[in-house]
């Protein structure tokens, strides 16, 4: 008797969940519009489609942002209509969704550039960084996605009795030290955030999951920084 009541309650809950889920599912159905497969000296490659209208041809916009100045130096568009056997084979619509856009890297000058792409107003996955000239070694950097970032300093309200010492025994240094959740970002990892390469060498009680706390020298700087959602890149 008790059990059957429980089962009824359970089924009722399932039914409720089933009713609650459909609307977000419809929204998310179009939320994986494609991916950037590669960015190199030849340009940017990938694919994009509208899963709600597989016969449509998406317009892809690639943006190239200087990691040094934060400014967009290039916006390039192309239609995603090249046949890709791999997509057709895996059952992604007709497979006619590939794009290849050549990028005039040398006109942008030496630097590291964030490569992002959009289709149907949504961002494609696989953003990456491409280095030109003396920054060529920056290539191979991989996006870990968007993290919540905050700031801290050696003051008592930020660091308590730790001051400028990190949990790994180093002296915290501005422009270098970040505090991470070591279960998400192992100590010693080098991450690029906003064009600066930091090293994960500290942790904090409030730093959990996809959250990174960036070390600054003064509390004024931490206040100015506030909270920002930033794309985080793993530097090999
Ligand atoms: Zn502080």
Describe this structure in words.
- The protein is an alpha+beta fold and 236 residues long.
- Helices cover 20% and strands 39% of the residues.
- It contains six helices and 15 strands.
- It has helices at residues 2-20, 22-29, 85-89, 105-108, 156-159, 219-225; strands at 34-40, 43-48, 58-66, 72-80, 82-83, 96-101, 111-119, 122-123, 128-132, 142-152, 177-179, 190-193, 196-202, 211-215, 228-235.
- The strands form three sheets. The chain has a six-stranded mixed beta barrel. Strands 3, 4, 7, 8 and 9 form a five-stranded antiparallel beta sheet that branches.
- Strand 7 and strand 8 (122-123) form a beta hairpin.
- The longest helix has 19 residues, at 2-20.
- The model is unreliable at 1-31 (pLDDT under 50).
- The protein binds zinc ion.
- Zinc ion is lined by residues 152-153, 155, 157-158, 219, 222.
Task: Provide a quick synopsis of the model.
By secondary structure, the chain is α+β, with helices and mostly antiparallel strands.
Q: What labels would you give this structure?
A:
single chain; 236 residues; alpha+beta; Immunoglobulin-like; Barwin-like endoglucanases; 6-stranded mixed barrel; 5-stranded antiparallel beta sheet; elongated; disordered N terminus; binds zinc ion
Give the arrangement of secondary structure elements:
Elements: H1 2-20, H2 22-29, E1 34-40, E2 43-48, E3 58-66, E4 72-80, E5 82-83, H3 85-89, E6 96-101, H4 105-108, E7 111-119, E8 122-123, E9 128-132, E10 142-152, H5 156-159, E11 177-179, E12 190-193, E13 196-202, E14 211-215, H6 219-225, E15 228-235
Parallel strand pairs: 10-14, 11-13
Antiparallel strand pairs: 1-2, 2-6, 3-4, 3-7, 5-6, 7-8, 7-9, 10-15, 11-14, 12-13, 12-15
Bound molecules: zinc ion.
Zinc ion (ZN) is lined by residues 152-153, 155, 157-158, 219, 222.
């Amino acid at each position: 008797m008790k059990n059957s009541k429980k089962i009824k309650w359970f089924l009722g809950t399932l039914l409720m969940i089933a009713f609650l889920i459909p609307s977000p599912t419809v929204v998310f159905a179009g939320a994986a519009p494609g991916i950037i497969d590669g960015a190199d000296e030849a340009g940017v490659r990938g694919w994009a489609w509208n899963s709600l209208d597989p016969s449509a041809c998406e317009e892809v916009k690639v943006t190239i942002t200087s990691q040094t100045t934060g400014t967009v130096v290039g916006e390039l568009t192309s239609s995603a209509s090249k046949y890709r056997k791999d997509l057709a084979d895996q059952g992604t619509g007709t497979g006619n969704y590939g794009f290849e856009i050549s990028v005039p890297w040398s006109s942008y000058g030496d630097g590291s550039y964030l490569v992002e792409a959009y289709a149907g107003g949504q961002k494609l996955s696989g953003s990456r960084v491409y280095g030109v000239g003396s920054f060529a070694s920056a290539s191979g950097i991989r996006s870990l996605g968007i993290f919540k970032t905050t700031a801290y300093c050696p003051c008592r309200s930020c660091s308590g009795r730790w001051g400028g010492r990190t949990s790994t025994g180093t002296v915290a240094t501005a422009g270098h030290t970040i505090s991470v959740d070591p279960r998400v970002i192992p100590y010693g990892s080098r991450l690029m955030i906003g064009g600066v390469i930091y090293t994960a060498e500290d942790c904090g009680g409030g730093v959990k999951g996809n959250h990174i706390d960036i070390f600054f020298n003064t509390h004024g700087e931490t206040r100015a920084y506030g909270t920002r959602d930033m794309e985080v890149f793993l530097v090999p």
